[in-house]
Amino acid sequence: MEFSTIWLFVIAAATLLIIPGPAVFYIMARSIDQGKKAGLVSVLGVSLGGSVHVLAGAIGVSAILMTSATAFNIVKYLGAAYLIYLGCKTLFSTSDRTTSEIPKAPRKKSLKIFYQSALVEVMNPKTALFFLAFFPQFISPSAGSVTVQFLLLGTIFIILAFISDGLYAVLAASIRKRIVGSKASSKLMNRITGYLYIVLGVFSIFASPQKT
């Protein structure tokens, strides 16, 4: 691939990543609910999930997802149900966050957040649709293997997304530090986080192969 094409892709991808999407809102919800560490762990999980979509797109699995209404609907509704479940679980949580210090998540909890975040991203068909719609604009069959080009662009995108998502996680965590410390703010955080999860779940229900 020509350097000018790659550079153009970087500019376009960075511009798109500035605009918060479902993954960013999910990461911010984690940071507000559980702190910066949980948010950054979520960033790692989302990056892993995005990598799965890149690999799937490169070998044509995502194309099957696009053409099969049944496969698309299964992934779509499972992902939506999982997000709504997380939202409801957070809204009805009885945990008390009245301490002024932000608790440190134990290792097992961090691993759980990592796997949950990866699962949420893997189960998000919008990611597959976006990659299939966006990447081909910068791929040329005459430039060599289409699969290699797709993987190259995917790697660049995941790196840029990791940086962008990390910044959003830190920003959300700073907001959390200001509101943690009272029962009222605890309830507010739970509500914000829970509703964000539910909105993301409802949003994913309306994803369709015709939309990007």
From TrEMBL:
<dbReference type="Pfam" id="PF01810">
    <property type="entry name" value="LysE"/>
</dbReference>
<feature type="transmembrane region" description="Helical">
    <location>
        <begin position="147"/>
        <end position="171"/>
    </location>
</feature>
<keyword id="KW-0472">Membrane</keyword>
<feature type="transmembrane region" description="Helical">
    <location>
        <begin position="113"/>
        <end position="135"/>
    </location>
</feature>
<dbReference type="GO" id="GO:0015171">
    <property type="term" value="F:amino acid transmembrane transporter activity"/>
</dbReference>
<dbReference type="GO" id="GO:0005886">
    <property type="term" value="C:plasma membrane"/>
</dbReference>
<protein>
    <submittedName>
        <fullName>RhtB family transporter</fullName>
    </submittedName>
</protein>
<keyword id="KW-1133">Transmembrane helix</keyword>
<keyword id="KW-1003">Cell membrane</keyword>
<keyword id="KW-0812">Transmembrane</keyword>
<dbReference type="InterPro" id="IPR001123">
    <property type="entry name" value="LeuE-type"/>
</dbReference>
<feature type="transmembrane region" description="Helical">
    <location>
        <begin position="192"/>
        <end position="209"/>
    </location>
</feature>
<feature type="transmembrane region" description="Helical">
    <location>
        <begin position="40"/>
        <end position="65"/>
    </location>
</feature>
<feature type="transmembrane region" description="Helical">
    <location>
        <begin position="6"/>
        <end position="28"/>
    </location>
</feature>
<feature type="transmembrane region" description="Helical">
    <location>
        <begin position="71"/>
        <end position="92"/>
    </location>
</feature>
